[in-house]
Amino acid sequence: MKIQEKPKDILENILRQYETGDKVLFQLRHKSMLHVDLSRGYQYLEDGSLNESYVEECLQKAVEVYNFMKYSDNLLVVYEDSYGKDNEAEKKFLESTLIGITEYDTYKLKWQFPINKDDLPMHRDEEIYTCTRHIYHVKKVNIEKLFPKIILSDIGGEMDFCSSVFIIDINSNCIFHLYDDRGLYLFASEERYLTNVWGEFHDSISRDNRDFKIEVNNLYWIDGKKDDPDDLCLHGDIEVIIGEEKLSCSCTASAAALRMLKTLSEDHLLTKGEQMLPCCGFFMIPNETLDEVEISGCDNGVDWTVLHDDGMIRLITEKGNTVYIYYLQYKEEVLRFVNVVEEYYKKSLPKNIPADEFERNGYIAFWNEWNRRRG
């Protein structure tokens, strides 16, 4: 007889897919996550009473997003009493919305808020809290009954479900977290589960695409030529917008595109000779297996820092301006630029591959790495 896996073990296995330990789930961050705003309206009317149409709009959007995810009938529902208040009324109500409960687990875990070294002592919360976690293995959730209570939690509702309920599809590992009327988070251990969400609910995703933009103003080969089969490196006039700052450079566009492709999986720090928009990028040093290349150039160019930071991408310009954007947003914009560069190569005359072995291997390694990172 097959022994059924305990909900706690299932949750721990899922969290391993997110490369995180057993932590309170409202602190979960991952590169494949999205925040969806539920409404642009206001919670209260002029007389101070609750805006019922606002609540209904929030509910409709939350239900729409949940249904769009097409969850299976193999679910984990996690309810976290983060401060150990033993909210029995909330627990009983939650259970009344769960359909087909097959297993239940509960246990306690310690947690605390992250401490930032730059925070003033008065702003630091160093207390260690005890969370009581309840986990249910269920077939379905009555979201029409549960979601209104969560939405009302922070705007006069009778129950407190703020940041405490997580619905997880065991088959896909996707996590749906409606935290209150302000919005919901979606997490996926594989980004393919969120790409359609990004397209369908783009206007409700709360990060602004204007925070990061790559504009290709012109592309050309050496000396401004529209075609040159002997020039292996594509050049161009590129403008990158990071927040309110515009960075422009006549650069080696092919090297810039590969450098940005690398940042989809690696951090990039300000580096002379390896700028994000490099003036020169013709000296390509291949590795032994010809699947990676180091592109070296002069000290001229435009650079910025790219950091993978707690599920987000942090961009820092040389002037110190900082912008946070979603990984999916960053990847979308980088790949758009990469595709423009690649398409220009395809429409140009075939390249004359160098007779020199070092130069030839550098060019081969360039495209091998390009195709591997582009996927």
Structural features:
elongated, 8 helices, seven-stranded antiparallel sheet, 375 residues, single chain, 19 strands, 28% helix, alpha+beta, three-stranded antiparallel sheet, 2 domains, DUF3885
Which range does the strand content fall in?
25-35%
Structural class: alpha+beta
Residues in helices, as a percent range = 25-40%
Give the C-alpha Rg: 25 Å
DSSP summary: helix tally: 8
Number of domains: 2
**What overall geometry do the principal axes of the alpha carbons give?**
elongated
> How confident overall, as mean pLDDT?
92
- pLDDT < 50 runs, ≥5 residues: none
Tell me how many strands there are.
19
Q: Helix and strand layout, with pairings?
A:
Blueprint: H1 7-17, E1 33-36, H2 52-68, E2 75-81, H3 88-96, E3 98-99, E4 103-111, E5 129-138, E6 140-141, H4 143-152, E7 165-169, E8 175-180, E9 183-187, H5 192-200, E10 212-220, E11 235-242, E12 245-252, H6 253-262, E13 277-278, E14 283-286, E15 293-296, E16 301-302, E17 304-309, E18 312-317, E19 322-326, H7 327-347, H8 357-374
Antiparallel strand pairs: 1-9, 2-5, 2-7, 3-6, 4-5, 7-8, 8-9, 10-11, 11-12, 13-16, 14-15, 17-18, 18-19
Helix pairs in contact: 2-4, 6-7
Protein name: DUF3885 domain-containing protein
Organism: Acidilutibacter cellobiosedens
